[in-house]
Amino acid sequence: MTWSRSHSQLTTATAPQLWERWTNAAYWQLDDPGVAWAQIDGPLTVGTTGVVKDHGTPAQKIEFTRVEHERAMDFVIRLPLATLTITHDMEPAGEGMRTTHGVVLDGPLHRLYAALLGGKLARQLPVVVRNVTAGALKR
Length: 139
Hints:
Blueprint: E1 2-11, H1 15-23, H2 28-31, E2 35-40, E3 49-54, E4 60-68, E5 72-79, E6 82-93, E7 96-106, H3 110-137
Antiparallel strand pairs: 1-7, 2-3, 3-4, 4-5, 5-6, 6-7
Helix pairs in contact: 1-3
């Protein structure tokens, strides 16, 4: 069983512009008000790890589980008896791109984490997507 939420937005940003924004951890704190800092430990491929630190929480190890150049990337944070997956997808739409960010909680305690974290994560999605697309257009 899982809990998930996502948010999509149309943008005139190109796939390379969005990809650069997603894959450069230096932008994450600019795009997500909850992120204090982030780092990726090497070239982005499935299995690459990193660390993300949200304001008010300990740093969390992340692992990339899906990397499709200029199309999609996901990373997972392993929680006690659950996983939190952050999803990123883009696809051509009309004259631009549709970009979608999502959060998925899975595992035996997914309902508990959804109650504790889910609302905040879901509320941040529109802000993050808006910041990513705006930031991508500046490059």
